[in-house]
Amino acid sequence: MKVLITLLMGFFFVGAAFAEDAAPASAGKKIFMDKKCAGCHAIEAEGIVKKTPATKTGPPDLSTVGADAKPGFIAKYLMKEADIKGKKHMMKFAGTPEELKTLAAYLEGLKGKAEEKK
């Protein structure tokens, strides 16, 4: 009986840990969509296609943004407080500080293409 209870508790805590990881990603993706970030950016690894036509010099696909950028930098860049190669983000993020934090964490979690995550 003790073994069964221990196993059930283990499954509960493992399941809770996975749910916690999924919640911020889900919330971040929702903010990305609600704030119309997909108007310019795609995240092909997440199945998000940008709404504007593709151009060679346009905003990049963000599928791998987290491989090079940390949440603190991403947040500063979205607030136009940092730049990439001398260029600032086109628009200042118009959400709450908590939404910015959640979005930056979500984007930092984007490390590669969906097929590479398998």
* β-strand amount: under 5%
Residues in helix, %: 40-55%
Largest sheet: none
Indicate the CATH class. Answer: Mainly Alpha
Discrete helix count: 3
Radius of gyration over C-alpha positions, nearest whole angstrom: 17 Å
Cα(first) to Cα(last) distance is 36 Å
Low-confidence stretches: 3-20, 114-118
Total strand count, please?
Answer: 0
Structural class, by secondary structure, is mainly alpha
Mean pLDDT: 80
Oligomer: single chain
**CATH superfamily, called what?**
Cytochrome c-like domain
Number of domains: 1
- The helix/strand series, from N terminus to C terminus, equals HHH
Short structural summary:
With 118 residues, the chain is mainly alpha-helical.
Give descriptors for this structure.
118 residues; mainly alpha; Cytochrome Bc1 Complex, Chain D, domain 2; 3 helices; disordered N terminus; disordered C terminus
Give a written overview of the molecule.
It is a single chain. This protein has one domain: Cytochrome Bc1 Complex, Chain D, domain 2 (Orthogonal Bundle), CATH 1.10.760.10. 45% of the residues lie in helices and 0% in strands. It has 3 helices and no strands. It has helices at 2-34, 71-78, 97-108. The protein is globular and about 30 Å long. Mean pLDDT is 80; it is low at 3-20 and 114-118.
